[in-house]
Design goal:
about 290 residues; alpha/beta; Alpha-Beta Plaits; Oxidized Rhodanese, domain 1; 2 domains; five-stranded parallel β-sheet; 16 strands
Length: about 290
């Protein structure tokens, strides 16, 4: 079935919503077809990833269209009251509606290990409200802020003093953590606060860190986007890479009007050129649709 495209006025303020839920989903192909039909009727655009482990959502539309999409989700018991973070933009950040079935809604483990412990059965790390993290930062408390994102995202911006693992894809995270522990870059005894754009990567990263022996692990509730809204981006340096046509937003959740390097996927300021020397990785580019 071809992907759906809808024409929407660029002068309208669009509502952008994103969120996820780890929950067991059966009969994925039937749900995919029903969801495509229901969301097409609502008029929203965006990308939804479905897997046996759950759902990952990024949609945009008018307030009425988003309301209709939420109402459709509520008709499904496993998706009822799905938490979706809202932001607003004058541009419509998606060109089509895509509902896709994948092995994972966020790629992390190799195929042979994906079903060892389903994500909905994993004890997740405690979520730290953005306001609590801000208090820690203002107090200069001795914590490790661990950026779980890819290096091209970190290039757009990150927390002041944060640690990142220089990874190109989230599936590289476990190996990078092992190396950082061995080198002493990560201290098992120090509290760790993980963060990513919307929280989904931390839902896998934080429990993994707990399994590796970290004494205290947290994840920012709602991710970077929620922190921007609740704390005005204090102690954040730069902007935030996002996986839609906006490419990057500032701490007020406004598009920064950057372009993107199709080789290394780094955001590039208007009128400038990327000086990367990395050859194009087509597997990465295909996987970047929603990470």
């Amino acid at each position: 079935m071809p992907e759906e495209s809808t024409q929407t006025s660029q002068s309208t303020e669009h509502v952008n919503v994103s969120g996820y839920r780890f929950v067991k989903i059966d009969d994925l192909l039937t749900l995919q077809a029903d969801m495509r039909e229901g969301l097409k009727a609502a008029g929203v655009l965006g990308t939804i990833l479905l897997a046996e482990e759950g759902i990952n959502v990024a949609l945009a539309g008018t307030a009425e269209q988003i309301s209709d999409a939420r109402a459709w989700f509520d008709t499904r018991p496993e998706l009822k009251d799905l938490w979706l973070k809202e932001s607003y933009s004058q541009m419509l950040p998606f060109a089509k509606l895509k509902v896709r079935v994948r092995p994972e809604i966020i790629t992390f483990l190799p195929p042979e290990k994906r079903n060892e412990t389903p994500p909905w059965e994993v004890h997740e790390a405690p979520a730290m409200p953005p306001e609590q993290l801000l208090q820690h930062l203002q107090n200069r408390d001795d914590i490790t802020l661990l950026d779980t994102r890819n290096k091209y995202e970190v290039a757009s911006g990150t927390f002041e003093g944060a640690t990142h693992l220089d990874i190109s894809h989230f599936r590289d995270f476990p190996e990078a953590v092992a190396s950082a522990i061995e080198s002493g870059e990560l201290d098992l005894k120090k509290p760790v606060v993980t963060f990513c754009t919307g929280g989904i990567r931390c839902e896998k990263a934080a429990p993994y860190l707990m399994e590796q022996g970290f004494n205290e692990v947290y994840q920012i509730e709602g991710g970077i986007i929620n922190y921007f809204e609740k704390c005005d981006g204090k102690h954040w340096d730069g902007d935030c890479f996002v996986f839609d046509d906006r490419i990057e937003v500032n701490t007020k959740l406004e598009p920064t009007d950057v372009t993107i390097c199709r080789t290394c996927h780094t955001a590039v300021a208007p009128g400038e050129f990327c000086v990367c020397e990395t050859p194009g990785d087509y597997e990465t580019l295909r996987a970047l649709e929603m990470v």
